[in-house]
Write a structure and sequence with these properties.
Low-confidence stretches: 1-47
Mean pLDDT: 87
Number of helices: 21
Oligomer: single chain
Length: about 425
Amino acid sequence: MSRGPITDRRTLLRGAIGGAGLLLASPALAACGKSSASASTGSGGGGSQVTFGSDGSDPTPRKAYGALTSAYTAASGMQVRTNTLDHNTFAQQITAYLQGTPEDVVTWFAGYRMQFFAQKNLLHPIDDVWSQIGGGFSDAAKKLSLGLDGKAYFVPLYNYPWGVFYRKSVFAAKGYQPAADWDSFVALCGQMKKDGLSPLAAGFGGGDSWTNLGTFDYLNLRINGYDFHMQLMGGKVAWSDPRLNAVMDHWRQLSPYLEAGASGRKWQDAAQSVFDKKSGMTVTGLFMGQAITDETLRDDMDFFAFPAIDPTHGQDAVEAPTDGFVLSAKAKHVDAGKKMLEWIGTSAAETVYANVDPSNVGASTKADTSKYNALQQKSAQMIASAKYITQFGDRDSDPGFISAVVEPGFAQWLASPDDGTSTLKKIESQRSQYFTS
């Protein structure tokens, strides 16, 4: 699996929408629709054309998006002119790009990331597109595609879930069972420690402190529920809210089971610890498969949903970052762009993409899963059955706030965890710098 949803995440996050400086036009991107386009065109179409702004500059996504646009040309006769931009630069300067001369259809992220630009009137509503494709997506996926005004602005292509990953052979040899509830999870960690394993591999050094958000998000979702979590992420609830005390308390219960030296390692090191059977489990995303080169090892990997804590919420939410497409407000070919989005919203389009890039699962409930590996099959089932889908802390919230305030705060706390009160207060003290209400 070569496309890294996470390998460039830090660059994608910092300032993508958090800083006012990004509202200043950048010559590099403002004119990119004219200067650096690479054509992905087909014959036919009678001169009809739609332009596509892609952040897929790495080899695998570039090839996958090329297959996608070529397939659309073959199906519709419409020429697609693709402008592939460096993914880091694209994310850092997305505001200037959308204010300048953007392509018609543009790659982007669901949830808060999309809602921010919809609020700024930089995206074109596509409710008519959803009237055609809505039957192919779960209610949770539909919700992710809505702006704060209730209009649709996004078409999902793929996503990938977070869970508790482990090696099946280790569990079989030791007689371990996946844990569905908190008490069972803590007991499993305790038994692994007695057996000489590091129960929970972790790596949040070298700029990878974002990995801590996976555990925090799930704890908050399981204890306080989806609505509270999204209010917190949206800056509408104080980080000093007493309901977060239980989250920090449960997190502290896991601290004795974290692999030693986690603050000095990266997520790939944590994954390798599980691969090498030094650690029993790790809380991470499906992207961990990028570190696997031996298909025998991939076949030995499995995961289970983060355990339930409060039965009121159970395991109803799944953390599954979702990537897809938007229609820019300045699109020159609005109707053509909508037609392309209608096609992208089909299982056929997802199949074309997945045949080239298998590091994710199709967002459509009608996606062809026949060629999925076992991890993809299970991921698709998990996401499809979710009542709520969250996007990960740095996508559901202001990424500047998360990367500059929340992540370092949690990393420091994990080095010597206490009741978490002072950490939450420090985070809260800076919230107003990023959220106006």
